[in-house]
Every structure is written in structure tokens, then in C-alpha cells.
Amino acid sequence: MKLYLIRHGDxxxxxxxxxxxxxxxxxxxxxxxxIRSEGEFFSxxxxxxxxxxxxxxxTAGKAVEILPWLRxxxxxxxxxxxxxxxxxxxxxxERLKTLENRRFLEDAVMAETCLKKRWEELESGGLSLLxxxxxxxxxxxxxxxxxxxxxxxxxxxxxxxxxxFLAFLLDLPPAVLWRTGFLSPSSVTEILAEESGDGRVxxxxxxxxxxxxxALKGIEAGTRGLQYNFK
Length: 231
Description:
It is built from seven helices and twelve strands. The protein is an alpha/beta fold. Strands 5-4-10-1-11-12 form a six-stranded mixed beta sheet, with helices on both faces. A two-stranded antiparallel sheet has the order 2-3. Strand 4, helix 2 (47-60) and strand 5 form a beta-alpha-beta unit. Helix 4 packs across helix 5 (159-170) and helix 5 crosses helix 6. The longest helix has 17 residues, at 115-131.
């Protein structure tokens, strides 16, 4: 089984929608061959994610289920000299590095945000979703409740929450990926649920922030959301 983590296309944040460039990206995404194979679509409730999912869902003839916990974590903010409501994943790299441990939710600054609540919401939602496909977490490891089906789960979401969900699958503090990773607009991150043969499941990244669908259509990959882009 595979999971596809898809960031929304180029956004118009003020309108919570896609720009014209973002719509081109979403239509290019719908041309990927795996879209038509066996699987299910899920999306954040925010408009820019739903708009990104729409062309792919139409191409595949599939419904899109909305998962509220996939919404962006843009309510998890801290004061910073650059702006008073800086998204937590845009903290300076040296500050994020101090959160790369199992006690990141107990950090004094993070305790003043809603990160603990949002992280617990993401964990609960992720566990509930994976349980539908026979994957659970027991004794500190991912386990299968029987052979996994040959299908995919496609999650249309955002930069901050997308990296956080990836960290959840990999059993990492989210700050590890917030500091070191990036998901380009409309990019696809491909994750394999590898079956070990003894009941364990190991999530492996096969591809991160893939944008080959854009190259095929002559569309340049975007950088919206990088740390120093605050427009």
C-alpha cells in the first residue's frame, strides 16, 4: 500500500483558493498515471486543498472525503521580529533544532501555542484513517492487522501539516522535517507502507516533493511557503 501526500497548488491565501498558476498545477497533477488506479482521495477542508484535489478526482471518477484534521496548522503561531504570527515551522533553524526531541510539546514557547492540541488531533486522525486500511500502532511500532491491500491513499493538504503528518508516520518530532524539508506547491510525496513479514509495517519515503507532472506540462516548480517568503 502507498500513501501520496499532496500539497495544494500555488495559493491565493487571502481568498483561500488557487491562483491561475495553481489551477494549472492542479490540472497537471490529474494527469499522473497512478490517479486512475485503486485508491481513495482525502482532503483538508480548506479551499486551496479541495481545489487541488478536484481535477484529479474528476479524472479518476472518485469522491473526495474531507478530513478536518488535515487543515493547515497556521493557528500554531509564535511572535517573531519578522511578524507577530509566525507559523511555527518557519522558526529560525537553530530554534527548530531545539525542538527535535520527544519532549517538543513541553517546550516553554510551544506550551503557549495550540501545538499540543493540534498534534494530538493529527495523531488521532491519522490513527483513525490508517485503521481503515488495517494499520495500527502497538507497542511503539506500526503493525498490520492482516496483509495490506494493493491500493493507495491520497491526502491533499498543506506545507506545515503535510510535513507534520510525514513526521507522524516516520515517528519523528515534526521539527525535524519543518527545519529540513519542503513541499513545493502541488508536489507529490510518495510513501510506501512496507510489510516486514512479521506483522510490522515500516513507512518509507520513495519520493519527496515530486514535481515531474509540472515538468511534463512545461510548468516551473514554485517555492511559495519557503521560510523567507512572507508575502
